[in-house]
Amino acid sequence: MEPFAAVIKEIGRGQRAARDLGFEEAHALFGAMLDGGVPELELGAILLSLRYKTEAPAELLGFHAALDARIAQLRSPNPRMRPVVIPSYNGARRHANLMPLLVLLLKRLGVPVLVHGVLESEGRIASPYVFRELGILPQANVRLAQEALERDGATFVPVGALAPGLANLLALRGRLGVRNSAHTLAKLIDPFSAEGGGLRVVGVTHPAYADKLREFFAESTGAALLMRATEGEAFANPRRRPQIELFRDGAAQVLFAAEHGSVRQPPDLPEDCDARTTARWVRAALAGDAPVPQPIVNQLAACLYGCGCCDSMAAAKALAAVHARGAEVA
């Protein structure tokens, strides 16, 4: 690993003049960052340089390899399918966070679901608030998360329990005022990679990052769904479905095309985005007393196919349509 000043000199010259790091350089650098081996001044310079330059695909691959080697590992409670892994780092600001609805629909169908993220979200309604209202409490460590997965089929675990070094980098947003590479890497966490991997549900806000992650997944192993996020959370916009792409060991498949144009009939959604109102509406949707928005039914089908619960999209769509109407599992 070069001295940090030499790395900063290369990556800190702006978007046009900066040099991208190769895989090995990126792997060593991010490993040092995760392990607390970079002094504060140099760490801040590196994070801001990467933000200004933006990460190249080889850098993301190297960063992810360093992170993956340091992620606490879990076991799938159902070896017949991939667990669904959903990041939650933003929370609701203007609209209800319906990601917990997707989680509970998957749980009802026997699909294991792990949600990871932060416990608070800078004034937004973080997912753990909604989960708490629904009886799903955050697990303090990996052992408890494993027990909850096996007992309940779905759980939330703070990122600090899975990757303390990554949590430290994420926390620097408060000091630096902007996001950094750790926020992108957090979306790519897979605590099941040692035993074949889970199905990561990755939501992005900016089109440029969607393109970067397509390149990343094209060069990666494992499985992931890539789609536009809703206020930064990885669930389909209930008013207009985003494109949903499935990646499996580098091969890409568009499962649903994006909807365009105006919304003809807005769905019946929660009146407010606070945790209690959202949880009440989620319960009604699960009971069949409120309609599950079609984009979320589509996302449910994509998850069922991507995780291996269904062996075809036709079967996944049929199963999702039935269970989104509040039907009980046979």
Summarize the structure.
This protein has 330 residues and is an alpha/beta fold. The protein has two domains: 4-68, Transferase, Pyrimidine Nucleoside Phosphorylase, Chain C (Transferase, Pyrimidine Nucleoside Phosphorylase, Chain A, domain 3, Up-down Bundle), CATH 1.20.970; 84-323, Pyrimidine Nucleoside Phosphorylase, Chain A, domain 2 (3-Layer(aba) Sandwich).
Structure explained in plain terms:
It is a single chain. This protein has helices at 4-11, 14-17, 23-34, 40-53, 57-68, 99-108, 127-133, 142-152, 159-162, 164-171, 173-176, 181-186, 207-218, 275-287, 294-306, 313-323; strands spanning 84-88, 113-117, 154-158, 199-204, 223-228, 244-248, 251-256. The chain starts with a helix and ends in a 7-residue tail after the last helix. The model has no long low-confidence stretch (mean pLDDT 92). Helix 13 links the parallel strand 4 (199-204) and strand 5. It is of the alpha/beta class and 330 residues long. Helix 3 (23-34) packs across helix 5 (57-68). Strands 3-2-1-4-5-6-7 form a seven-stranded mixed sheet, sandwiched between helices. The chain is built from 16 helices and seven strands. It has two domains: 4-68, Up-down Bundle (Transferase, Pyrimidine Nucleoside Phosphorylase, Chain A, domain 3), CATH 1.20.970; 84-323, Nucleoside phosphorylase/phosphoribosyltransferase catalytic domain (Pyrimidine Nucleoside Phosphorylase, Chain A, domain 2). It is 45% helix and 12% strand.
